[in-house]
Structures are given as structure tokens and as C-alpha cells.
């Protein structure tokens, strides 16, 4: 009996978080290891369904990754890269869209539904959700790689209102109807801003951001993040993610989190525990101070 | 880190119950030890607030008990009893109402609000929630002891819709305006029926119902309960509670539970675990079979 | 037949007032003689129920008075006073709350329901309606006597929307959960401001405010009231009531009235006749001029 | 002061009627003397506006009368009659419609608005409110005199919902678009049935229905009315009105009243007093018995 | 088959206009030849019903004209004129109202209903839609000729919301209840402004506005129109119409059109083709440039 | 000018159809030639967007076809067939889903959006729209070929309510989460029944159904269709389509149409002309008679 009571007490620890985030929108970028490992896939789907059932509005943006490469290979499409970004011609784009929207997205939707959620997949073309244009990389045209120029959130809002969980593939549509492949972190940031989300959570494959001495940073203000980037402390791979947080905060998102997606239930832990599992980027130094105080008290 | 992940997994165990009871009404009779012990009082308030936050509609009916006796004593009002029921003259009734509505009820409301709930206290007079008439005990008039003849649930529904938790004192009003003291179990049963509640939970000070051999019964059908009463197996003190369950089931409540209120978090455990903590009385033998199967599977 | 036609014409005299106050909120402080005399109690209940039926939203705040004293006496609790205010220790507070919420409030609710209204009683703890803190009197701590620091009107609004009449006992709750006894006039004023009420009516046991020559003042502006207080013209007992009117006007209430509660149907007369029965305190000299003109015209 | 209190008491006498008729639809056929005399016109407009303000839904159907005759005369249109009904050719119909819809209706609307109502005039053509066909009189074609074959009440319901008072001219439209002049009593009865009205009130120029001995009948059941007609007791002029009541009762109207429109405030008196001013025709003998009992008790 | 496909393609040409005007309010002044010729009457009714069915909100204001004169003549009422405006005494006004509201309006309503619309006629008295005062012409009192001083659009909005088509006779009501005859163009302009209409369309009996050289002007800015009036280029008869457009634009209407009502389906052509059939007056020179560009592109 | 007027008249011919189908749901199976030819693709997208703008609710179910074959080939997946149906192993199913959901569906969505619609693509997994199970063909397991066992239409209804056009790929999800390829005609029929659609339109590559003499049948009743199938008159390829119509009619769809998708604007012609372009299958012989009469009259 003691065991069961202990369980009840753990449920009750969730109460302050339930109160704080009730009815709030949480945008989660889902990718990396968490999307590749079967156990983590299950745990992620469960986490999201739970959030929905306790009254929050999770919105998922997923990446693509290994599946795309293997499909391109199977089909004998060769890939060139410019500064680590794939040059995306029309044929490649067709494969990317097909895999992201027709395979990856559907797998995630199916998994959530199997855990009792009611997920609905969307591409950026649906309801013209993500309007994009060609992104130049160092003034070079690398094909159909896009950046977001507008978000029409109404389709998300309709689905939210009917208690569905929107799951979004990072494909955008140009004003001329062209299809663009867009970095999923960027899409998540823009959608979080358009929805005035309470939280943006980016799942990554690292433990968080580290300072000059290699120590994990638990909370940092937007301006510190900018300095760390300028000072070369943040690794190249993390820079886009951190910038995405900075932008989302500027666009009205209340808090952003870079979270270790390799940890089981990383999303639940981020939302329902004081410490979280990664680095939190907040709007201002004052907000950071409040966050730190909360951790100490707990 | 393992510890936190274990916690997340406990949260997730709640998921099937969250799904099953989302938006459902749970009427809880609160009384006995659970209302006398400070730790249990806190744990009960937390349990109820949690239910509200995860989307259920808890409705509380509380008893009175020791406070009434001590107040009658302080005021020098003597009590006579007929078959264990207090003969309630007008003066006694005034004290009973004052204590139940003005003291006990307010303490419960205050406690829930301190845990972040938004509770509102009601007496059966408010919105003529509980309409009553005099109850004769063996054809004897024992004064203002009443039985429920009607429930006007609209005030509860308005408060529910605005996300308040209704907390009800078991005082009824006669068609002539008289005030009646009513057994709280009976009130809870009638209100559960009027609200077509999903569950009626009666907190008691025993572990549950026992069979002829003294073994705890985990689940029994309405007809078995009737037989056990007829057979003299169920103790005199439990008979009214069991009858109240039988009536509520007949009135449309989906399930009823006689639960050990001396156990911390008894309400949460009842709702979020397979075994529960007491005896479940269900409508039919078929329903019992389903319940038993669920327990075995878990 | 002439008699009946005359009656119809009296009904029709109400038409302009029905039009003016349709859908408006009228906060009424109920106390003094009107709460002690049986005939006046009936007439008050009828008045309020009528207001509700013709489309206004009456909100009642009641005082306590003699009942509290007699209960304290019965229970052998002695009372000390500082500048006419009772020093309220915890034990006294418990009795005050019990009487106000569990007895006085319920009697008023019951009476209104008997006249066909649908009243619901509230204490300041319900839905944390009245948040309070300790009030020092001349820097002296006189115990649990409070002043209002916040009003959460949502529970009133939910009940209004469902056509209930809220009846409020002047008990507040501290941020720490403590219970406070608060002057009912003050509570009525704060609630009127929080609801942006059209009218605040304070029932008293005098004919109204008198000027230096002892003549009844029918209408006065807020600034005149301030001067009369400064000039020592207004009696000590009336000062808190007049200040409460001044505050309510500053807080957005359209008009305030100090009305002679000893007159039968004082509330109806105040609302449905030009002269009213007492003294009206209005926001500005211009508003006063308009009011005076209306009386002359009638 | 006594006078004013007496007035308040008269207001309160209205309370039971306010409760009984709140939100109910009252269809009133307006015609005869009440539409010709200036004082009665004012009193009728006031009565209707009051009903609206206290929460009922009055719907007015008006007749035409003397104005039509004088206009036909002015224009030199001669009239033939068959069994007291005007033979209505197209030219006559045009004048009838013009006077009813463009003059009489507008005067009533204007008068109500001047008393603070918000009236909107309708002809049976508006929203195809009244669909009609030619009525033969003893197998004779007397032109564009119609009978109602359908009512589309939606335009009335939209106006009601927006708090307007609908005022209806008894002009119908044929399936072929032809315009028909229809008896206003008949129109009122059909509209009352289509709206499931609580009451149908027909204003007339007599004191009510009399029995064989010439005594006024206060209440009679539908079947008695049928017998009185069969027995030749009811005068020829009253027969259509009584039949209209019988039909309306059969069509679902709760009560019907033939009221003396020459009495000032006849409508208010009918609704707000026990005796009323005329003859009430109710559905059954049982309903009659209840009505009679109510009168005796008052 | 080719023919039918060609028809489908014409339907599809309407698509961009359907998109642009979906849910928008279009106020149309109906008068002149279009109201006198049977074929044009039919075509106008069809046009309006179609607009309603494809999701726009047409609101019709009609004039009077020849019918009034013939009725005055029949009745032997003589007319005097001041600067072309009829001196309107009370007797004349009564005839004007009767004809406009009781005859012309009803004919239009009937015609639309026959084409499957659901039209409801309104006079400015209904719901006090058009509040007016006496208009002096060169400081001369010419009787009950009015100008609009207020519009209460709620009755129109209620009807719109219930999918009725409002058809308005240009009769206004004074603050004292007097009836005023008002120029229908002026009424249409004021109603368009009160409804924030997308378009005001004035049907006339000319091809449009011509410039100094007699060429039809297709589009002109508000300021140009002012200059053309000042320069004496616009004919006396057209000046009030053009001024009405200028006022409506200033009052918030998006676009105004002076259209040749002698052309069959003039309303449809104006809305569903690029060129339109008359002269468009737009708010600014920039708006004009955009309009011209659109025509060239088409 | 005559030309433009002729155009307006063609617009007006649509009026009776607009009235009949306003707010109605039209399910369209899109496939075959209409999905392969660029001109037909454009014309189909325009047709659907027009339907939406004039107030109908089109719901599209599309097929797959040649794209799937070419992708399987590119990827080197070989296909076996049983009675003309592809044996679908897991690897094949993955390709089918990817192409249908990630490519074909997205192309249709994009095309509609480019024509001003707001389309949203759905797979049967989204919101568990299409629940399926394995379909045996002559008792043979041919892999993941499914039949519909349930439709959850809520996601369609949410999108409809927010004015989106749902575009559905015929992929179903098993109770165990498996993915099934389902015949698009069958899906369209089941969805039409679940939505109580007004019409089900199946686009094909033939002119319609022919009788024994090879003459096109314009309208036939459900029972005739059954006889023609039994009699071997309907070709093997058409049998499933006709059966799908029969089922949909039995399931509550008002009318079904087998339409020649090779004709430009086939959808518009079917809805907006009397003859339509193919064969109509109606519920009963009586319905057929009404339809034939309508054609003759036109």
C-alpha cells in the first residue's frame, strides 16, 4: 500500500505544473535520436498524449533525417552539399516531401493515436500553413531550401479546438506554389511565435548548452546567449537552435528550452519538474533570476 | 536521473484513467477520519484539486460529526437519540446548520482554495439544491431529520461550467421552507443520480465490505449486495452506505465505491489504480466480471 | 374596474425605470432594522425577487448584528472593544463566521427562495470572492478584523448568468488562508466597484444625511460629502457609510444611495420612484444638478 | 409616504404573473375601438412595451377598419358585399394593402417606439410570413379574400431574439404571388399556433361572451364554447372569434382570451390580474376548473 | 457539350469576385427605369437573390416615383414645388408613406421572394432605423422633407444574420415621431456608411459620369469628383448622387458606383465583371490607379 | 454589351442549383484521366473551389494510380497480382502510402490553394479517420489491402466548419495500427454515408453506364442497377463503382453519380445543369421518375 501512496504523491507533485500550463500551447520540435530509437519514440508519443489529456495544447514539428537519405539512395539520387546543407533540386525535393509527409509524419501520427491521442498530420501546404521563399546560403542558390515568410495558424487552431494534436512536417509552400524544404527548428520557432506559445521545446542529441568551462548551463537570458555565440563558446551545430530560441522569445514565446532528447520522457520531465533536462533560454536577466530561484527552492 | 524518469513513468500510468474519466462527474462523500486528521485533510484537498485540473468534475458532499456534538455541548443543548439517530428539534437544527454550513463547509472550501482549487460551498438551500421532507424512523417523529425528495442540480452545473468545485453541506429545505438535517451518504447518492455521475465514492472508516469469511470483497454486483444484506453478512453500520450505492446505481450512476478514507490519497488511488482501496459495487454481474478481469490483467 | 385600471397605471409608471435599469447590476447592503423586523424582512425579499424578474441583477451583501452577540453570549465568549470595534480573536472569529455564513445568510437565502427567487449564499471564501488582510485601528491590532484587498467576481458572474441571486456574507480570506470579519458596507462598496455596478444601495436605520440645519439632503455630490465630513456635519456613525459611497463612485459605480431601511419596500421605492427614500451621493456637481432637475420635473 | 408604499405593493402584486409568463410569447389581436380612440391607443402601446421590458414576447396582429373605407371612398372605389364580406377586386386589394401596411401598421409601430419599445412592422409578404389562398364564401368567389394555409415564423423569431416587437398586418401572399386580405383574428390565431404561444388575446368591442341568461362568462372550456355556438347562444359577430380561440387551443396555444378592448390597459389587466377583463376560453373542463379556483382564491 | 463547358467557364470567371466579396455588405439604391420596366424588375430581383445565395449581404434602398404622383392625383392632392422638390404637407406625407411602404416596397419584396429570396421590407420607422429631421431648402421650410441624422442598423443586422434580404423604403422618423420623406440616394449612402458596406451601388438612368469632352469616366477619385462638380462639368441632376458617393466614401464605404440601371443585370455586371457598367468613385487617386490597372489587365 | 448580359444570364441559371445545394456536403472521388491531364487537373481544382465559395461543402477522396507504379519500379519493388489486385506486402504498402499521402495528396492540395481554396490534406490515419481491416480476395490473403470498418468524421467536420476543403488519401489504419491500402471509390462511399452527404460523385474514364443496347443510361434506380449487374450488362470494371453507389444510397446519401471525368468541368456540369454528364443512380424508382421529369422540363 505504501508504494501506491507514493505513486499518488508523485501524481500530486504535478499539480503546480498542471495549474501553470493549463490551456497553454507547447510547441515541440521532435527530431534526432528521440525519433530513431523505438523506446524513445514510444515514450515521446506517451508524453505528448498525456500533455493533451491534462489540458495543454501540444503542437509537434518533426524533422526528417536518416529516412530521407536512405530513400534518396534507394532511388539513386545523388546529393551535393554546400556548407553542410543539401543542394535540393526538384527531384530531391519530391523525395524529401514524400518521405517527410507521407512516411515520417504518418508514423508519428499513428504512434500517438495508438496511445490514445487524436493526432492529425499537416504539411506546410495544408491551409497554406507555412509560406516560404528560397533561402540563399552565402549568396548561393542551393535549390528548394526555404525560409519561413509567413504562418497561417488557423488550421492548427481549428484542430486544437476540436482536441486534435497537430503534427507538422517542415515543408513550406512558395507564393508561386513551389515546395520548399525547411529546417524543422526554424519552423517550430516561427509556429511557436505565431501561436504565442507558452513554451518552445527543441529536442536535441546533446545534454544542453555548456559554458566556457564545459559546465552545463541550466538557464540563460537571451542576451547572454547572444554573447556566448559571439564569443564562440556555443558550438556551430547548436548556434541555429539557440538563434531559433532567441527569435521565438523576441516573437512573443514565453520560454524556450533546448532539451536532451536522448533521455526517456524528456518532454514530461521538462514540463513537470523544476530542474528540467537541458538548457532554458529566457527573455531577460530578470526572468533568468526568477527561474534560478525556483530551482533552488525546489 | 533514473529517479525522475521513474516519476515520469508513474505520471504516464495515469494516462488510461485520464482518458476514461475526462469530463466525467465524480461525486465524493467526504467524512469520518479523513475529515478529522490534518494530514488526511490535506491529502484529500490535494486529490480533489488534481481531479479538477486533469479535467474531471469532482463534486463533494461532506458530513458533520464531532464538531456538531462539541458545539451542542458548549451551548448546553442536550441530545436524545432514537435508534442511534439524534432527535432534532428546531434549536438543535439551528446549531447543526450553523456548524455544517458556516464552519465545516468553509474549512473544506478554504483548504481546497489554498491548494489552488477554486471551491464554492453550497447548502441544500442555495438554489433549492436539496428539497427534503421529514423522515419518520419506525413511525416515530424525531424532528427535523429529513430525506431527499428532489434535487435541483442547476447551481452545481453553473459552478462546474465555470470551473469551480462545488462543496455541499447536507442540509435540505422543505417545501414549507423548513430546514432538515440529512444523512450525507444519502445526499451524495441522490446528487450523483441527479448529475448522472460516472462515479460515487463514499469515504468510510473501514477497509471495505467483507464476506462471510471476513475476506474483503473487491467488487460485487448490486444483486449480491442485496443478498448479503438480507443474509445479515453486512454490518448494521454499513447497510445504509451499501443501500445508498444500490440506489445510486439504479438511478443511473455508472459505478459506486466504498473506500477506506483512512488511507492517504484514497480518492486518487481509487481513480488512478486498478485495484482501488475498498469495495466497488457495480450494476450487474456482467459489470462485475469485467471489473475483475481488469484487475487480473493489471 | 377603476381600481384595477389605477393599478395598471401604477405598473406603467415603472416603465421608464425598467428601461433605464434593464440588465444593470444593483448591489444592496442589507442590514439594521430591515434585517430584524419580520415584516421588513418579507418586504425586502419580495423587492429583490421582483428586481431579478424584471431583468436587473441584484447582488446582496448582508451584515450580522444581534445574532452574533447572542451566540457569543450563549457560548460564554466575552468581548472587548477598541473604538467601538470588537477585538476579534480566533475563537470569536469562528463564531462570527458560523453565525453569518451558517445562519444569517441561510435565512435570507431561504426567504428569497420562498418568494420565488433563486438565491445562492456565498461567503468571501467561496471562489476566493473577498481577499482581505488585517486592518489596524489606530495602529492597534484588534485581531481578525479585515479590510478588502481584492475581489474575484467570477463566482458572482457565473451565478448571475444562470439567473441566481447572490447573497454574500462579509467574511474575507487572507492570502495565508486566515478568516477575517469585515464591515459589510465596505464589502458592498468593493463588490459594487468590482462589478461596475449601476447602483450601490446602503440600507440604514436613519432617514438619510442631514445638513447643518438638520434638513434631509436628497442629493449631494461626492465633493460636498467630503466637505460635510470635514466640517463635522455628518455624524460619526454615518461617516463610514458616506466614505464607502465616495470610494464606490471613485471605483466606477454610477450612483450610490443611503436609504432608510425602516421604510417598507425601501429598495423598490429607491429604484422605481423619482424621490427615493434617503440621500443619493453622486459623482459630481453636474450629476447632482441633473438628479435635482429630474425630481422637480416629476 | 404611505401612498408610495402602496404603489410598491401594487408592483409586487405583479410578481407571480412575471414569474409565470417570463419568456413566454403573447399574441395579441389589436383592433376595434382600442385602435380608434387616442387614449386607448396610447394605453395599448404602453401595455405592450411594458410586457416586452419585463421579459415576455408580445407579438401584435392588427386589423384595419375605418381607414380603409375612407381611403376607398376618397379614391372613388365602390364596394359590394357578400354576407357582410367585401368583394375584393385587385384595385380594392391594392388600396387595402397600402392602407394596412403603409399607414395603419406604421402608426402602431411609431407609437410603440415613442413609448420606448423597439417595434418592427411586418406584412405577411415579408419573409413569406403568411401564405394564403383564396377563400370561397358559400362557394362564391369574392375576390382576393384569403385564408391562411401556412406560416413561416422565422422572421418573427429573429426579431424577437433581437428584442424587437413584431407588429403584423393581416395581408397574405399566395403561392402564385397574389396578395390576399385576411381576417386579422384568423391571422392572430394561426400565428399563435405557429409560435406555440402561451396566450392569444383578442381585443373586441364587447364585455365578453354571455350565457343564455345574459350573464358574462368568465371562463369556459373549448367544448362548452362549441355547444354554445351550436345552441345559438353566441352572437353571429362573436362566432368567428370564438372559433378562432377553439382552433388556436387545438393548435397548441395554452390559453385564449376574448377581452374588452374598450377598457383602458385591457392587456395589462388580462395578464396581471386574476379576474381579467373578458372571457377566457381554455382547452378542457379541467383547465377551466383550475382557472375558476384561482379566481376564487384571489 | 462544348456549349455547356463554355457555360461552366463563365461560372468560373465569377470565382475571383466571389472570393473578394464573400460575406461583404453591398448597399444598392434601386430606382428609376429599373423599377418601372417589367423585364428590368425581374432581372434586378434575380441579381439580388443570386448575390445573397453566393454569400454576400445585399441591402436594398428603393425610391418611389411615378406611383406617388398618380396616387396624389387620384386623391386630388395638388403639389407645389420649390427648386424641384415637392412641398410636403402632412396629407401629402401620408400618401407618400402609404405608397412607398405599403405598395412599392411590398411589390419588390414579393418579386424577390418569387425568385427564391427571402426578402423583408422595412420603413425607417421600423426599429427606428432612420432618424431624421426637417431639411430646409435655401432656408425655406418645404414641409416634411427630411435629412438623415442617425441610423440604427440593428434591425438590418438581425435580418442579415437570419439570411433575409432587407428592402428599405426611404421614410424617416423624427425625434418627435414625425414622418419624413427622404431622398433615397441619401438614405442609401447613410445606411452604407452605418453598415461599413463594401460597396454602394446607385442605379440611375444614365450611362455614367462624363468628362468635359463628353467621354464616359470609368473610375475617378473622390477629389476629382469634387473638382468636376466645382468646375460645373457634372450635370445638376447627377450632383446629389456624386456627393452621396463622396460622403459614403468619407464615412467608410470601400467603393461606390453610379451604374446604368437601364442595362439588364446591371448589378451582376457591376460586381462580376472588370469593366462594370458606369462610373466608379473611389476614395483616393491611388485607389483609382489600382482600379484602372485591373481593368487593363482583364 | 450583349455578350456580358448573356454571361450574367448564365450566372443566373445557376440560381436554382445554388438554392438546392446550399450548405450541403458533396463527396467527390477524384481519379483516372482527370488526375493525369494538366488541363483537367486545373479545371477540377477550380470547380471544387467554386463549390466551396458558393456555400457547399466539397470533400475530395483521391486515388493513386500511375505514380505508385512508377515509384515501385524506380525502387525496384516487383508486383504480383491476384484477380487484378496488387498483392501488397509491407514494403509495397510503405511506398503506396508515401506516394499517396506525401505526393499525390499534396499536389492536389497545392493546386486548390493556388486557385484560392483553402485545402487541407488528410490520410485515413489522421484523427483515425478511416479504420480498416484486411480484405480477403476469394479467401486469399493479398497483404495490406483493406476494407473500411469505421469512419470517424470529426476531423472533416472541424475542417469544414473552419471553411477548409478536406482532401483525403485512401489509406486506412487497422485496430492494431497497421496501414491498409483501400480502393478510393469504397472510401468515398463510406465517407459520404458517414457525413450524410447530399451527393456522391465518382469521376471515371467512361461516359457512363450503358444498357443492353449500348445506350447511355441517364438515371437509374438502385434496384435496376442491381438487376443490370446480375444480368451481366454492367462491365466488370464498373461493377465496384455501381455497387459503391448502391451502398452509399443505402447508407443515407441522397444521390450518387458516375460521371465522365474526361470532360472539362465535369463536376460543375453535374451540379449546375439538368442533364449532368454521366449516369445518376438514385434510391428508388420514384426518385428516378422525378429526375427524368426534371430533365424533360428543362
Please tell me about this protein's structure.
- The structure is a homohexamer of 298-residue chains.
- By secondary structure, chain A is α/β, with parallel strands linked by helices.
- In chain A, 43% of the residues lie in helices and 24% in strands.
- Chain A has helices at residues 2-13, 15-21, 38-53, 66-74, 90-114, 154-161, 184-194, 222-230, 239-250, 266-272, 285-297, and strands at residues 25-30, 57-62, 81-82, 85-86, 119-123, 130-137, 140-151, 165-169, 171-173, 179-181, 199-204, 219-221, 255-260, 278-282.
- In chain A, the strands form four sheets. Chain A has an eight-stranded mixed sheet with strand order 5-8-2-1-11-13-14-12, sandwiched between helices.
- In chain A, helix 4 packs across helix 5.
Amino acid at each position: 500500500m505504501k508504494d501506491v501512496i507514493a505513486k499518488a504523491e508523485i501524481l500530486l507533485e504535478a499539480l503546480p505544473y498542471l495549474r501553470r500550463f493549463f490551456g497553454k500551447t507547447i510547441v515541440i520540435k521532435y527530431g534526432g535520436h528521440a525519433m530513431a530509437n523505438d523506446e524513445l519514440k514510444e515514450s515521446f508519443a506517451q508524453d505528448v498524449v498525456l500533455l493533451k489529456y491534462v489540458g495543454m495544447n501540444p503542437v509537434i514539428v518533426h524533422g526528417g533525417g536518416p529516412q530521407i537519405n536512405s530513400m534518396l539512395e534507394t532511388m539513386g539520387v545523388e546529393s551535393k552539399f554546400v556548407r553542410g546543407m543539401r543542394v535540393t533540386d526538384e527531384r530531391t525535393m519530391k523525395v524529401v516531401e514524400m518521405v517527410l509527409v507521407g512516411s515520417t509524419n504518418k508514423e508519428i501520427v499513428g504512434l500517438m493515436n495508438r496511445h490514445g491521442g487524436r493526432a492529425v498530420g499537416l504539411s506546410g501546404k495544408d491551409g497554406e500553413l507555412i509560406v516560404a521563399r528560397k533561402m540563399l546560403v552565402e549568396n548561393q542558390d542551393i535549390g528548394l531550401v526555404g525560409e519561413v515568410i509567413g504562418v497561417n495558424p488557423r488550421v492548427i487552431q481549428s484542430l486544437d479546438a476540436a482536441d486534435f494534436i497537430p503534427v507538422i512536417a517542415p515543408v513550406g509552400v512558395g507564393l508561386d506554389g513551389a515546395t520548399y524544404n525547411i529546417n524543422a527548428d526554424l519552423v517550430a520557432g516561427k509556429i511557436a511565435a505565431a501561436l504565442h506559445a507558452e513554451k518552445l521545446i527543441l529536442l536535441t542529441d546533446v545534454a544542453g548548452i555548456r559554458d566556457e568551462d564545459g559546465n552545463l548551463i541550466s538557464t540563460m537570458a537571451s542576451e547572454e546567449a547572444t554573447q556566448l555565440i559571439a564569443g564562440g563558446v556555443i558550438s556551430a551545430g547548436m548556434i541555429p537552435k539557440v538563434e531559433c530560441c532567441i527569435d521565438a522569445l523576441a516573437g512573443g514565446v514565453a520560454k524556450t528550452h533546448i532539451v536532451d532528447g536522448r533521455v526517456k520522457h524528456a518532454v514530461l520531465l521538462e514540463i513537470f519538474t523544476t530542474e528540467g533536462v537541458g538548457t532554458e533560454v529566457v527573455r531577460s536577466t530578470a526572468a533568468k533570476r526568477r527561474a534560478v530561484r525556483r530551482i533552488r527552492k525546489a
